[in-house]
Amino acid sequence: MRILIIGPSWVGDMVMAQTLFQSLEQQHPGCQIDVLAPEWSRPLLERMPEVRAALSFPLGHGALALATRRRIGKALKGQYDQAILLPNSLKSALVPFFAGIPKRTGWRGEFRYGLLNDVRTLDKARYPLMIERFMALAHEPGALLQQPYPRPRLQIEAASRDQALAKFGLMLDRPVLALCPGAEFGESKRWPSEHYAKVAEARIREGWQVWLFGSKKDHPVGEDIRQRLIPGLREEAVNLSGETSLAEAIDLMSCSDAVVSNDSGLMHVAAALDRPLVAVYGSTSPGFTPPLADQVEVVRLGLECSPCFDRTCRFGHYNCLRLLEPRQVNEALLRLDGPPPVDVMSEVN
Q1: Which of 27, 214, 286, 326 qualifies as a FRET site for 132, CA 20 to 30 Å off?
Q2: How many whole angstroms separate alpha carbon 103 and alpha carbon 120?
Q3: Concatenated DSSP letters for 223-275?
């Protein structure tokens, strides 16, 4: 069984897509899974043992480029028995159609009936979780999903990890707290810098070091957190945001002893690395895309106006994040040092 996956366009979604790959291996032992996705996703896919090959998709998010999609499809002709589409867009269905893949599976969306020949109708009540909607595409319509659900697990090579440590001059002589203060979604997912700084200060005073992760856009936020630390503590925090590749960020985060993250792609990376994780939620909810790991503490206020899922606060106050105090996150970190918490999946379900 040769299967082509049309992958999602976001880090967190790609991490969660591993549950589909695991489900396909259970359904079709020995199947070959290739993933067509943006080049940035290669470091994630290379750390998923279920994936045979990561195929680079050269077009940016939203670009139609019909001729390019046709060319890619023709190049893949005759290589696959089935295509499974994770995006719901019409554009995502073009390459499998041009490739003439016999079975083309995906959820109904954007009038793509002629492009797909295995069109599924999504029952959101039956599949409230994103991973359930991914995994359901590995089964026949109406089939029960096997429990317990698989969880994303990224595999790290020691040589690659050690190379990243050496490149950035990092040592593992003290415990590492990883902070992920960014969020591509928008301001309504970002816990304030001053709160992150308080958490960093508390751990540094206990003998920890702090590594900050994120994209280039998150670098100023990381610097703001560092600058809020007093001299003497500031030197124990390293801002890696925008300095590492995604591959290096994954390998370095695997060295952390605890992670504090907004609801972001890096939150899902931390969960897939099985790192003790405090996930801070504001405008969003863990009810759709929870971090999938055992050692997770979800911290949120649950105000009347949240979750709103807006990119910016419609009231302008961001109270769902601003009023969530550093004390609550520090207490969650302490709970992670104790007995394992209740499985986040059982809480959601």
Answers
A1: 214
A2: 13
A3: HHHHHTSPTTTGGGEEE-TTTS-HHHHHHHHTT-SEEEEESSHHHHHHHHTT-
User: Which is nearest to 296 in space by CA: 250, 261, 327?
Assistant: 261
Using DSSP's 3-state secondary structure scheme, residue 104 falls into strand
Measured in residues, the chain has a length of 349
Query: Which uninterrupted H or E stretch holds 322?
Result: helix 319-322
pTM of the model: 0.92
The two three-digit tokens of residue 109, written as one number: 């969306």
Residues linked to residue 34 through DSSP beta bridges, in sequence order: 4, 53
2-138, CATH topology level: Rossmann fold (3.40.50)
Terminal alpha carbon distance of the chain: 32
Contact 251, 156 (CB under 8 A): yes
Averages of pLDDT over each 10 residues, the chain, 349 residues? 95 97 96 96 97 90 83 96 95 95 92 90 93 96 90 97 98 96 78 96 96 95 96 96 97 98 96 97 88 94 81 80 93 78 39
Token pair recorded at residue 314: 């419609």
Neighbours of 129 (CB within 10 A): 21
